[in-house]
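Marked as duplicate of an earlier ticket. Keeping the data here for the record.
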Amino acid sequence: MARKLSDSIFAKIYLILYNVAQLIGWGAILVEVIKHFSSGKINYAQLWANSRLYLSIFQTLQLIEVVHAAIKLVPSSPVTTFVQIISRIIVLWAILVPIKETTASVGVALILASWSIAESTRYLYYALNIVSLVPSLLTWCRYSFFILLYPSGVSGELILMWRALPYIKKRELLYYKLPNPLNISFYSDWVLMAIMFSYIPLFPQLYMYMLSQRRKVLGGTSKRKEKVK
């Protein structure tokens, strides 16, 4: 039987290093969020400015996780992984970076707080799981925090998309109008609205998927404890 790529010692070392790097990056964002709100002076644009570099690097780096899933380096679906990441990439590079006005929105605080807590927990869990050193409390956090953080993060994404729409239309950002050599038109605000509407069917599906994963892990743990008793 062929040995799985994920069983390779080199793959494990690589994944540990990757997860630790992501943990450091998202941990830095979380520190910025905590520092900002503990100061008592709420300024969403400043929070974005302090976190922009970290978010740009480590959120974009997550795209490599689609490759990890595709080559079976990790036991995840590449499609599910891509769907979970792409909305964040859009919010980052198509909204926050080019449209400065959106950075003064409460949506910035929602995504930065939600994403940084969730991802710091997730990457710490992944790194320790590779060496089988995950404490039960971390397992519970990994499969429970999303219950609140996923809706709050999605709310932040939708708020930022909504705030971006008038600026996209006014500046005609990424528009491709007729007439043109390709004889097609492209209006990015229409595409963004379509993405927002796609949350209606996709969010419940992903949320239920995550709940089912939680039941498998935490529910299975409870059942094993009952059998031991």
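See parent ticket for discussion. The first helix runs from residue 9 to 38.
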